[in-house]
Amino acid sequence: MWRYRAFKAVQSVVERLPRSWAYALAIMAARFAWLFSPLARPRLDYNLRVACPELQKNESELRRISWLNFRNHAKAYADLMMLPRANVESMRPLLHVKGMEHLEEARARGKGVLAVSCHMGSYEVVSAIWSTTLAPVSFFAEELEPRALFEWYRDTRARLGISVLTLDVGGIRKVLQALRDEEMVITAIDRDITGTGHVMPFFGHPAQIPLGPAAISRRLGTPLLPVCVTRLPDDSYLAEATPLVMVEETDDPKADQIRATEQVLRRIEMFIQAHPEQWHVPHRIWDGSP
């Protein structure tokens, strides 16, 4: 429980600070983590080299992007810690949307919206704003240890109108019902948390990629909406959507899922290469990673 107690102690301070002070504290913590993390930074650097091959021969640029990556992720954590006391309505001007027509097209189909993304940006803030102004939002989240920490994440998001769904049978049932109710569900496919993904090229290297979103899309006719969230220089947020991906049905369901997932994955690669300083995945994705 020490991890949860430490988190709560910091969070109880951060949520009472002005936004600029909370970010300053987050940046200090990021500097410590970037300098001394035994695995997070080496794994992130490895992933960045794969995603951006030009960094393989430019160590100084890799260091710069890696540091900015930790810095942006720390600010995202500060955003999460401040949410319990945040006035979401007042935060609406902080959200900018690009590609709103694709989101509206998805909603007009009446099958819900399955937004597929990667681990980038302050999704809690954007999801809270979307839930308040557009439609109810749910998203998948891995269960954290200790359980008390996961429950804090879940309960905090629930107070903001965000449903947190676990990656199990019960979570899948809730996703299907949410989409039937024409809600928005957000998930990420750049990391295979359950270890059941299909191996396919990701930045030209074989990686396990989850087919679940495409399977749900094929079953319900829900469009897949590739989307990413990034932090702008003034610490506002940009949610960017691209054209919908529909799963074309044939007699081979798995092949249908693979084709649609590959289409989405190419969009995800574009997001990551455009904003490597914001793609925070300090985990093993490819063989050879630390």
Can you tell me about this structure?
- There is one protein chain.
- The protein is α/β, with parallel strands linked by helices.
- Helices cover 51% and strands 16% of the residues.
- The strands form 2 sheets. It has a 7-stranded mixed sheet, sandwiched between helices.
- Strand 8 and strand 9 (237-241) form a beta hairpin.
Low-confidence stretches: none
How many extended strands? 9
Q: What does the radius of gyration come to? A: 19 Å
Q: How large a portion of the residues is in β-strands, by DSSP E?
A: 15-25%
Oligomeric status of the shown chains?
single chain
What structural class is derived from the secondary structure elements? alpha/beta
Shape: globular
Q: How would you write the strand order of the largest sheet?
A: 1-9-8-2-5-3-4
Task: Characterize the main sheet.
Answer: 7 strands, mixed
Q: Percent range for helical residues?
A: 40-55%
Number of helices: 11
Average pLDDT, to the nearest integer? 92
How would you spell out the order of helices and strands?
HHHHHEHEHEHEHEEEHEEH
Distance between the termini: 27 Å
